[in-house]
Amino acid sequence: MKDVQLGEVIATRKLTLDGGTEVTVHVGRPCSPPEWNSNFYCPYQIIGLGSERVRRVGGVDSMQALVLALEAIGADFYAYNKLQANKISWFDQSDLGFPIPDFAIDLGSE
């Protein structure tokens, strides 16, 4: 798989890791490369938690790709908070404002 580019950033959120370290999320504009036959992907990047590579989530249209990218971000943070001693917060709240898919919550309760 070739490297994914973030492209035009359409949304950014800054969060805080315990200890004051800033964590930044960038969401790129959903796009439809010609080889995807009209399907879309939405790129995103999390800076400040280790790997800063750009990831992407696919969907049948730009809205689904965007919604699934937000859920992937929510699942990433949910898993991080479950596995690490450091906790991420947004305006001193544990609710980071990203949807968390049911499968991520189910995995965390086992």
Report on the biggest sheet.
5 strands, antiparallel
The strand line-up of the biggest sheet is: 4-3-2-1-5
Show unreliable segments. Answer: none
Strand content: 25-35%
Shape: globular
Distance between the termini: 32 Å
Tell me the number of strands: 5
Order of helices and strands: EEEEHEH
How many helical stretches?
2
Number of domains: 1
Could you explain how this protein is built, in words?
Helices cover about 25% and strands about 30% of the residues. It has about 110 residues and is an alpha+beta fold. A five-stranded antiparallel sheet has the order 4-3-2-1-5, covered by helices on one side. Strand 3 (about 40-45) and strand 4 form a beta hairpin. It has one domain (about 10-110).
SSE layout and pairings?
Blueprint: E1 9-17, E2 21-28, E3 40-47, E4 55-59, H1 62-83, E5 88-89, H2 102-108
Antiparallel strand pairs: 1-2, 1-5, 2-3, 3-4
